[in-house]
TrEMBL record:
Family matches, as Pfam families: M20_dimer, Peptidase_M20
Lineage of the organism: Bacteria, Pseudomonadati, Pseudomonadota, Gammaproteobacteria, Alteromonadales
Cofactor binding comment, as recorded: Binds 2 Zn(2+) ions per subunit.
The protein's name: Zn-dependent hydrolase
Organism from which the protein derives: Idiomarina tyrosinivorans
Keyword terms of this UniProt record: Hydrolase, Metal-binding, Zinc
Amino acid sequence: MTSVDGSRLKKTLLEMSQFGYNEQDHGVYRWGFTEADMAVRKWLLEQTKAEGFESFMDGAGNVFFGLGDFHQAPAILMGSHADTVPAGGIFDGALGVVAGWEVLRVLQQSDTPLSTPVWVVATAEEEGRFGGMMGSQAIAGALNPDWLMGAHDADDVYLKDAMAEQGLNVMDALDAAWPPERLKAFFELHIEQGPVLFNKDIQIGAVEGISGVFKWIVHLKGKADHAGTAPMNMRSDAFMGLADFAHEIERIIAENGTDKTRITVGKVDLKPGSPHTVPGEAIFTIVGRDMSNEVMKELADACRKALSAIARKHRLMFEYEEVSWLAPKDCSAALTDLIEEKAAARKLSCLRMPSGAGHDTQFMAEITDAGLIFIPSVNGVSHAPDEWSHWHDVEAGTNVLLDCVRAVATETIGDSLGHKRGSA
């Protein structure tokens, strides 16, 4: 049984981790469409081309490299995202890109006869700096001009301006869509970003479905005042409104959510931001997740009602902007079965499971059969400098990816896939 080169895989992943690496906190800073993010994309193009693979970057900033002509036959696409959250880890996203690269190397060096092209994508802006998962949305044809022109981050930097600084035209992202008939299947290898596999000592996760996600930017507006002279009972303190909402989250989940529900306040900005001034405005993000779109709607409604009541209590004005709404998505049952089968063939323990985090796979599933493979993350840590996966798990997951891609590219299973080709 052909296997990947674990040492080469490790070396490449560590090389990629140097782009945006911060020596002080040991985090990786490749926020979408920053200098470090674009530098790693240029590196991917140069290195893969040097190894003999065709490569290009589309108008959305997605980097592609691979074997065979996807214009002539439906392709197998694999990969993940190249961007990170600020102070992120080295595995989230990058693992799927480098693992796909390693699979291409093995296929190339073993002269595997392929019945279909095999390509890798390093998607752009998956971490949601501007809301959504722009790169995979572009591939799936799920973008529109209004969103592209209006999308901005929590610091009011607009997507169109961030892309322009990197020499990209935001409207070119509309031309990045892949017609469904060009795809036979999509695979993504990713760390779990949760503790289930690690705690159960299971090596592979075969993901059945992916949680939906909504993201808001909320403004609670009161009145700035002197911290020493303004009586406590006469204040319009925006921070107190935020604090009250934080205490409401547990109740909202208990009444409207499920055991899969997550609600997070992740970024907060108090204005004017002086130690001696009562905050006149609190700007913060709310991210809600669940496996049911209907539950997500109930959670959003409950958050809205809670914030309205809190605003009245503290004499505040409440406004919010829905930055994105990503519905839950099922993975391909056929590919989930295949992941289980290939894990078993290598005598690796495997668990069918949901994903609480969003992934590029959920948009790729709109246009083709899509499968998502998890490996354990130590203690379930992700989006942090101490995010870590053991190298033997990295190698095991990449071998399962290799076996799945080879099966679709060379065996009869590929004949039954791509059922969404030709759909709108």
